[in-house]
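As a warm-up, study this chain.
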Amino acid sequence: MASPAPATAVRYVEVIRVSGQTQYDKDTPAQQRAALDRLAQGRAGVCVATLQEPRAVSGALRLAERPDLQKLLQLARERAFDELRVQRWDRVQRTPLRAERGLIIDAIAEAGAKVVEADGGEFDPATDDGDLMLGLKGSMANRERNLIRARTTAGKLQAARAGRPYRAAYGRTWDVEKGTWGYDEEKRAVYKSLFDRVLAGESQRSIARDLNARGIPTPGGVKWSAGHTSRLLKDASAYGVMTREGIEIQCPPIVDRETWEKAQVALTEHSTRLGGPPRKSGAILQKLVKCAVCGGPVHVRWTKDSARKGRKSRLYYVCARRPEPACRRFHAVPKVDELVEERIIAMFADPKNQRFIFDEEGREQGEPIDYESEKLSCEKRMGELRAKAERIQRRNDAQLLEDETADKMLAEVAKERREVESRLAQASLSVEQREARARAEKVRFADVRRSARFLRRRKGADPEAWRKTLELLLQGQPLYLRPDGTVTARRP
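Now compare it with the structure written out below.
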């Protein structure tokens, strides 16, 4: 009698992802790796691939900016795996785009694969139940992301109004428990020496070389350059004023305001004396844009085309950090600026779209929370809980409920009441913030309309005029440059 054919081993793909660099540094990937290893010990199979980026990656990034998900879709098209193993489904993505969430689920289903979580959860997207559960998990992950962002924003505003800094300014210390400022005397002396030396006529490059020779690190712990000294000399915290969330916070000064202003004059005179006025770049997004992949600053850089005779200069937007796998580093300024101009002109054609001029998804971006409805729902639920507590108390007084049972039921009501109160407070704050933002946007848009009327005639507008219009539109909020050269107002 012939022996039965051996069963085919289950092929699986693992996905490991963390959202922030702090998580990455705290070995969260190692924790996910350990959870998946425990799953592998109790669930036989052959690992086809482990998809993990060498850095922190936001789950809200689009597919075009997620090499790991692009590889996953390729493997799904090849039907190269039977299971997708993750610690939790939200480790795959938290994108606010429902279409992209559905695309991944559909690709896994068409590959005939299942999703297996490290805690034992198993979902087959080809079935109605599996598709429903994965869809719900994706929606809940996106909602959780929105709530976290709302709570974080509210917390930052509250801390700024209370005068608490995000971090201590260079040369100063901040005692979180006592809420008091102090000085780091060693760094304070270094900071003050920058002003003394610049006012004495010394160049910033010379100062940087001396600090490096003495082994003194920058605030970020790297070597000094003229850029580091320039930023510290121009920082308003030097004379005791910090800004957080648009709110001024007082901190201990390094020098007085008069000395700081003299230093600004000295910096300008030195720059003019060395090379004349700074070269105008003609880039609309200069100092207004960041890299959408790594979040780093984007500089404007002149480069020379060595392949052409005469080495013609060209202007590029350049990611200041080292290139990441998904980060295209160079973007031609004329091409990007032309897209920006078209967006602004389209916005003036339909002012209702002003909030979405740099967001293709517009109102379809994510699943926005209706805080008005949330507030009304919480208020209604609070009334129901009060009535429920009163009914329990009446039944207990009439000896229809034992004391132990009544206490347990009242405790459950109190617990739910605290949760609803927290949601109500958050919804109320969000409603107030939205109303204040709407009033501010109305005033701001009127300013933009007045300042940018002539931008309809594109030939008569210079880059500086476009940039000033953008500054009015953005109010300090950065734009993000994607690898494909498009610009968005939201960090993916």
